[in-house]
Amino acid sequence: MKKHKEVIYHYDVVFEPNGAGYTVTVPKLPGLVTEGSNLREAREMTKDAIRCYLEALLKEKALDFSKPKSVRREKIKVAV
């Protein structure tokens, strides 16, 4: 595999208690589901799962690491 410049990506993840630990999903990465017996393990499993997911996309050339997207995050107040 060709070397590429390392890029750091940020993802929101969802930790759901499942009785035996936590099930984790990543809304921006369809189909990615992992779990851990505690939050610490679930976080580590999630990092590994995301890394594998992105490496698979890179291998299939479905992800271009050379052009990271610029994302802006803000908190917005909404009254209902």
Give your account of this protein's structure.
The chain has 80 residues and is of the alpha+beta class. The chain has a single domain, classed as Double Stranded RNA Binding Domain (2-Layer Sandwich). 26% of the residues lie in helices and 15% in strands. The protein is built from one helix and three strands, in the order βββα. The protein has a three-stranded antiparallel β-sheet, covered by helices on one side. The longest helix has 21 residues, at 39-59. The protein is flat. It starts with 13 loop residues before the first strand and ends in a 21-residue tail after the last helix. The model has no long low-confidence stretch (mean pLDDT 84).
Task: Break the fold down into its secondary structure elements and pairings.
Blueprint: E1 14-17, E2 22-25, E3 33-36, H1 39-59
Report the C-alpha radius of gyration, rounded.
15 Å
Strand ordering within the main sheet: 1-2-3
Query: What is the number of domains?
Result: 1
Q: Under the CATH scheme, which class?
A: Alpha Beta
Instruction: Examine the coordinates and then state which fold CATH places here, giving the name of the CATH topology.
Output: Double Stranded RNA Binding Domain
Write down the secondary-structure element order: EEEH
Oligomer state of the chains in this structure:
single chain
Shape: flat
The unreliable regions are none
Return the structural class.
alpha+beta
Helix content: 25-40%
Mean pLDDT comes to 84
Number of helices: 1
Care to count the β-strands?
A: 3
Terminal CA distance: 52 Å
Strand content: 15-25%
**Largest beta sheet, briefly?**
3 strands, antiparallel
